Amino acid sequence: MQRRRPTIIDVARKAGVSKSTAGRALSGASNVTDEARERVLEAARAVGYERNDLAVGMRSGRTGLLGLVIPDITNPFWAEVARGAQDRAAENGASLLVFSSDWDHGREASHLRALRQARVDGAIINPVADSFDDLDRFGLPFVLIGSSAERFPANSSVGSDIAQAVRLGMDHLVSKGHHAPALILGPKSRIARARFLRTFHEHCVERDIDPAALPMEDGEYTVEGGRTAMMRLLQRDRVGHLAVFAANDLMALGAMVAVREAGLRCPEDVSILGFDGIPAGAFSWPGLTTVAKPGREIGVRAVDCLFDEIAGRPEHGRVFMPCRLIERGSLADVSLDQPRRAASSGRG
């Protein structure tokens, strides 16, 4: 037979106090003696009582629940964002409900409805669609994350500084002698692709390089997407060493697979630079040099901003988080070869 769930009446009876005194003690109210509070807490432990947070939330207007809607929980970068958000929420006594939209607008809308029904205090959302209708109807405090948030400048948002990150990667490629790398980009429908490509174009124009002349391939932000894009790059005519800047680390790791399958070596024949900083890059062979986005820090900062929104202290505007370079072994240094090559071509 299923055991009845203990109630606050059971706690009060066990502690020898009134129900109201037990309630005040368990809620942390100050108008309870230390001795009574200790008896109530001990009684709660003894009978196995757990406070009904939903019922408390209905009375107070707060549930202590936050929502997080990310595009792909299987991508380690987004898992890091979720971990940072969860840790910060827990530090503030809140719980986090995590949903993955899988880059699907319908699924995202369904998740937003579920969060409203769960009476969350607010949510952190990476919007996957250009339409703002679903967020207008959300009716609760929210903070946006990811590159997609740039479409909505009037709302608080937190994300990586993509322009700084792309420039950081390009400057590192140039320092290694790779002045005209090929690109592996995400789908044309994603705003992250446009932001990446815009900064890349600016970098090339500053160095008198025609970006239209550089090879580019699109693919999904997955290992297989990077693999197939890299295979297409390898089928193109080329001279000398090939350097590739991939739009995320999963794609970069897939590109490494394609290089091996083609009988080539990384970095001896092909250099590869990733973008995200996921842990798997440290365990590939060679290790993946990458521009690391601050996934966990984004999650932490987004929760801080959300608490401000909930408290009526909004941080309107976009918070840009700086990225950093992690150098491993996937980029060859060909800078010393270039003077010899130039001299050799000059002798005709």
Automatic annotation (TrEMBL):
SMART domains: HTH_LACI
PROSITE patterns linked: HTH_LACI_1, HTH_LACI_2
UniProt entry keywords in alphabetical sequence: DNA-binding, Transcription, Transcription regulation
GO MF annotation list: DNA-binding transcription factor activity; transcription cis-regulatory region binding
HTH lacI-type domain span: 6-60
Keyword Transcription regulation included in the entry's annotation: yes
Family annotation (PANTHER family): HTH-TYPE TRANSCRIPTIONAL REGULATOR GALS, LACI-RELATED TRANSCRIPTIONAL REPRESSOR
Protein name in the entry: LacI family DNA-binding transcriptional regulator
